[in-house]
Structure formats: structure tokens, C-alpha cells
Description:
Blueprint: E1 3-4, H1 10-30, E2 42-46, H2 50-61, E3 65-69, E4 80-82, E5 95-97, H3 109-114, E6 130-132, E7 135-139, E8 146-149, H4 159-173, H5 178-192, H6 196-201, H7 208-211, H8 219-234, H9 243-253, E9 268-270, H10 274-288, E10 292-294, E11 297-304, E12 307-314, E13 320-323, E14 327-330, H11 334-337, H12 343-348, E15 359-361, E16 364-370, E17 381-383, E18 390-394, E19 414-420, H13 439-454, E20 465-470, E21 474-477, E22 482-485, E23 489-491, E24 510-512, H14 526-544, H15 563-574
Parallel strand pairs: 1-20, 2-3, 2-14, 3-10, 7-17, 14-24
Antiparallel strand pairs: 4-5, 6-9, 7-8, 11-12, 12-13, 15-23, 16-19, 16-20, 17-18, 18-19, 21-22
Helix pairs in contact: 1-10, 2-10, 2-14, 4-5
Amino acid sequence: MVEQYGKVSRRSVLRGTALAGALTASALSVRAVPAAAxxxxxxxxxxxxxxxxTAAHELAERGFEVTVYEPRALGGKARSIAVPGSARxxxxxxxxxxxxxxxxxxxxxxxxxxxxxxxxxxxxxVWDNLVxxxxxRFSRSGGPDTIVPMGLGKSWSNPDDFRQSLSSVIATSAxxxxxxxxxxxxxxxxxxxSSDARRxxxxxxxxxxxxxxxxRHSPEFRVLMSRTLTTLLVAAKDDHASTRTIGSMGEQFxxxxxxxxNDGPLDRxxxxxxxxxxxxxxxxRLGELGVRFVTARLRRLEVRDRRISGARVADPAGRESAxxxxxxxxxxxxxxxxxxxxxxxxxxxPELAAMDRLVVDWMSGIQFxxxxxxxxxxxxxxxxxxxxxxxxIAQNQFWSRTPLSGYGDGTVQDCLSVDxxxxxxxxxxxxxxxxxxxxxxxxxxxxAQIQAHLGGKTALPDADLHSWFLDSGVxxxxxxxxxxxxxxxxxxxxxxxxxxxxxHGALENLFLAGDYVRTTIDLATMEGACESxxxxxxxxxxxxxxxxxxxxxxxxxxxxxxxxxRRMDAVRYAAGQPNAFDTPT
Length: 585
């Protein structure tokens, strides 16, 4: 196999720590903290991912004194990861990542924040670095592929029109029998005409596979309409994923063909490496607003009189220090946050104990650097039959600002960035799940699964492969013969909504931000992280009685043509009756 860039040396870690220290000093020198922030307005934010940076941004704009404590790297899972040892000839290291970035047009919170991050030459700040993908490809290992344009679809005006329009689109694009396509359209109509009470009370407690009756339909239907919409898109299993969650995504992708109210085109990406065109400008903006950054890991929270009285953090050398603040924002992932819920905290806010029921799984990326541009698709590709549920994007075609030839040794012309969504199913080369494969085996296996789909249709020769890089959060344990993952992803399983907390509870000065917090988008995404942080900040503003404007919150689209049916369904659900379109088959 070709050269891999997967191991991070101690020197690289120390260099990253030094950079973080330099960043802290730079941020401190940019702008003095406003005098108004000195009393009762100090906020400690634990976690420097999208949620933490959003909270810091919103608070700093409102005059709060904010310190962000982040143990690894600002940007969290959204950041770029420099591929260690890949730089040559004065060029920077190749850009790696946890997984490729994806900004659907129905995202509103992240784009709103992006517009407030200055970027040289851009009238709309970082938002202008978003570019549209024109198509998506659904590749099959044993049959023809499907190319789906990402433009506007056909309009509809009533339920019958919706069913006919969507079933026609699905039958044509997915090559399904019309009977299967019509059935799926009918089921999505049931969801879209369901009231909020039914969505939370009934569909939240039913698996997507059961909702669409996957087992009663063709194998193609099960693969495309059940598995693809769950495992490939949100790293979930169709027999575990909540209908409420998956149905909401179907409503946004398929139920709004004219993209009414969207922030932009349906499928968008960044025009360069994530850190360069988003995270680093964002960090600079926060520094200008007076935000401090400290490289440290939270050790514990201290409680007194129904308040967080303080916290302890440790620097990279393990030295502990006290954090004193008036308000504390927990912007760490769910699996990290619940480690800090001590008996003292749960005595005040017992609902946090339910977070133990939240499920996390793996969705991590691997990048293949190519010597020639790839011609796979002008957008995302789903490898429908891959046992590891692979999706990819060829990045250089979108990176007009920073072509890949300017990185590494200068010979890389493209990067096929691949998300691996299923780490638990045996692969086709070694017969092992990804969790039990060495990094070299993971790379070979992913490459083989992609080639099995593209063979005879699109050239991706071995000779084009320059090198590869696996997400540095995935670490091989040679003694135990399996991988560990520092960055698992929350999975919206059946009934999990009740285990997800509100951004604020009985602990007066503790606020929660992260994609596990209850949000409108209801999905583990950058958008969910951003929305949750805004809700946490609004709760903080309410608590202190601030007269500053609240953070803007955006609803998901719901077709106004169906609103009368949703109102009718609220009555039917309260009376114990099924949705009017939910007829026996």
C-alpha cells in the first residue's frame, strides 16, 4: 500500500500545544475586555468545538467576558487536521479531517454565524466560502449507478399532487418499481401531515425501518429508502433510528423541492480546507471580541447552593488550576459531559442522569490523496452496497481558493475524502469490522469497497493513489487488536428524545451546549451544535435578566399546504386515532 500519514508524533503534539499558547496570547492582546464584563459577566466555556465557539461568539458580542477551555484543538470535529510529515519544499502539510463538511441549504444557524465572521474580499464573510455541489451519485457494486441533480424539483400544491410528484421522482432516480416509490411517498406524506404531538409521542418511539415497512418491500427498497437514509447519512441503523429524526430529514430533502426558505442550494461545501476558510477566521474574530482561549481539560465541577461554584482544569502537563466564573457553559460531547454529573449535580438536576441512555457510535473519515483529479461525481457519492456504509466527496474541484497542489510535496491533485459510517460490519478483504482493522487494513478495505462500486464505470486506478490519512481520533491498540475513537457521534435512537436535556435546568449558572441538547434540527450535526449554543446563551440571558437581543433561532421548513392536515391530525392524535393518511396496507 502507498505511504500513510496517520501517526502523530510527540513533537507534533507539542507543536500544537505551542500554537495554542500563541493563539491564547494573541487573543488576549487583541482587545481589552469591556469594563461592564467585570462583575457578574464572566463565562467559562468548556469545549472549543462548534458549540463552544458559537456560545463564545454570541456571548462576546453581548459584552460578556468569555474564556474557552479546549484540551485539543479549536473547531473540534469540524477542524482540519494537518497531516504530519507530509510537507515538502516550503509547502504546508496536506489537510486532513475528521470527515468531510456538508452544509445543506436548510441549515440556517451555521450560515447566520458565518456571515458574522469577516473574511478578506468577501462581502458576506465566511458564508461566501460556501459553494454548491450540482449532483449526487448513488453507486452500486452490482449494477448501474444513479446521478441525481441537486437543483430544484417539481412543485406540488396538495397531497395527491405530492404523492404523484415524489413517487415519480423516486421511481426514476432510484430505479424502484412504481409501487415501492408510491408507497414511500405515502409514508413520507403521513409524517409530513403529522402534528407535533404525534411526532414526539408516536414517531419518536418507532424505528424508521418499521415506519416505512421496509421488510415487506423489495430488497432495493430496503437498501435505498431504509438503509441509505439512515446509515449512510447519519451513521445510524434503520432498525434503531427514530422515525421522528429521519422523517424530519426526509421532509427537508424531499418535501421541499423548490427549496423554499432555504439559506442556499441544497448541497454546499467549503471552497478550501475547513480551518483555513472557516475555523481560523472565526478564531480571529473571537479574539477581536475579547475571547480568551486556554489549552486545558475540564477535571471537575464544584457545586454549592444549587450553583456551580467553580471548576478545576488541567493543562497538557497535568497541572491543575481553578476556574472562577459567574456562569459555566458545558459545550463538550454527550459522552464527555455525562462523566461530570456527580451525585451533587444530579441531586439538583436529576434529569441529567437520563443522558446515560444516549447512544454514541463511530463516523470517522479517511482521505485518499490522488495524483490526478478524480472524475467520480460533481458532488457527494454514496456507495450503496458497501458494508462499511461509505460516502465520499472529491474535494479539489470545489477548492478554488486553495488547490491541493499547494500542499504536501506538490504532486497531489485531488483528495477523495471518505466517511466510514459503519465500523461494526465485516469488510470484503479481511472479513473484519473496521474497529478490528489496523489503519493500513482500514485504508486497503475502504479503497477496495470503493473500487468494487466504480469498477467498469469510473476509473480510479491504484497508480493514482499518492497517500492516505485516517482521522487522528481513531487510534490502534495493538495489544487489544482494535481501534479506539476519541470522537464518537451521537445517534438518535428510538425514544432518545426524552433522555436529551434542555440547555438550562435547576443549576442556576450551568448551561448545556452540544448536539445532544434538544434542538429543532434534532440531529448530531454542526447545525445542531450551533443551534444548541444559541439556546444556551438565550437561557443565560434570561437568567441574568439581560436586555440585549436574544440569539436568533430558525425553524425547519414545513409545507404550508399541509398545515390544515397537521391541525386536523392534532385532534385525531388526541382522540387516539391514526393519521388520516396512515391507512393499512
